[in-house]
Amino acid sequence: MILSTTPTIEGQTIREYKGIVTGETIIGANFVKDFFASVRDIVGGRSASYEQVLIEAKETSLHEMRQRAEAMGANAIVGIDIDYETIGANGSMLMVATSGTAVVI
User: Fold this and answer.
1) 76 with 37: CB under 8 angstroms?
2) Under 8 Å CB-to-CB from 30, ≥6 apart: which residues?
């Protein structure tokens, strides 16, 4: 399955539009990650634990979207958008939402 943020895929003709597909993931950040991230905020530097959570959430959301497109008979998704939001009490949860158009090329 080809995934693209562009509306077309160079060298390929879109033969059929199957529809909009989405993927959503909500992941909670635990106390240990919060603690070490707060230390990083004070002393500076990157938070590898939070970066890993972001990567995991994005990959899960893209995988879910890919599965939904395959169920529709698509072999590509174009125009993919990835959104990140914090939700819950004090922003304790991370939501990653992906959307795109399932197509047949």
Assistant:
1) no
2) none
